[in-house]
Task: structure prediction
Amino acid sequence: MIESKTAWIEAEIASLKEQGLFNQIRTLGSPQGAWLVVDGRRVLNFSSNNYLGLANHPRLVAAAKQAMDSYGIGPAAVRSIAGTMDLHLELERRLAAFKGVEAAITFQSGFTANLATLPALVGKGDVIFSDELNHASIIDGSRLARAEIVRFAHADPDDLRRQIAAVTDYRRRLIVTDGVFSMDGDIAPLPEICAIAEEHGIMLMVDDAHGEGVMGQGGRGIVAHFGLHGRVDVEIGTLSKAFGVVGGVVAGKQIIVDWLRQRGRPFLFSSAMTVPDVAACIAAVDVLEESTELVDRLWDNAAYFKQGMHALGFDTGRTETPIVPVMLGEAPLAQQFSRRLFEAGLFAMAIGYPTVALGKARIRVMNSASHSRDDLDQALDIFARVGRELGVIA
Result:
């Protein structure tokens, strides 16, 4: 008897379920906000990357509607043929000014921005020095580049130096690191990495997906946070998290942006960002340029929540940002903890392998400027009850 063509997939899925690693996807029935309707139930939201509460902001919604009245919905082409609208160019000008760089280019997502940039900058015969905890989009973009990938120990400038010294056969070199690491909430030691890049004449690229709109003055990112303007060659960002919409951006030197317009494959071969998305992103820049209120509130909320979790006895790892990992260890416990939180009225997803290493499962709590102090108090109370019920805290 011939085995089913999908038998191996069935076996793999069964194995994932046995290990507690099968990802059950919940469904939203409401706009993003501090509260959501998830699988038909109204719950507190601590899962979304909607850091500033912009995903349902009335100014962004109004901008999207107005743009659709003027331009329609879809660009109907790739950027290099007939898909570049003046809205795209306006957004890129505004982002470059916001970031304090020479130029910017937008992509369909932060993921595609990495897939475009890495293969355009390096290739066969080149070497990429990559933090071992870099995001999957960096890993995939590096593989597409076909350069040698040399991992250095997480956030460890000394190990980066050792790896650079050990690699002597190369054509071009690139250092790449996340700015804010999405699973642990810690920050790259960017000043030290930047100094190493300058010392060795190596191009430096930073993926600031979780720093855009969060770190730095008014949310201008980790380069602004450390005062490194002009010293980081390439900044990758996303418009899908703090900006509340969807899209990616590469910001930095004009020459690199010009090159990506010629060789960035998602720019050349995939349709441009849609009209309402671009217009909403421009409105998000308006909001951030006018006031630091939302960024300040986000950090106030994060500090309050972390203080409360520490007082309860939870292990929140090495976070330095509004990302708060509640470290639980094994995936089945994390899955059970997430289910009990949901039953108690709080939506916070379990994160396990392969997103994080085996034995490092956790609940990842995403704080937002849209949460009220009462929301945070309710969340702390729910975490306390579930934590004690499952024996995580005393």
Q: What stands out?
A: The domain at 58-290 is CATH 3.40.640.10 (Aspartate Aminotransferase; domain 2).
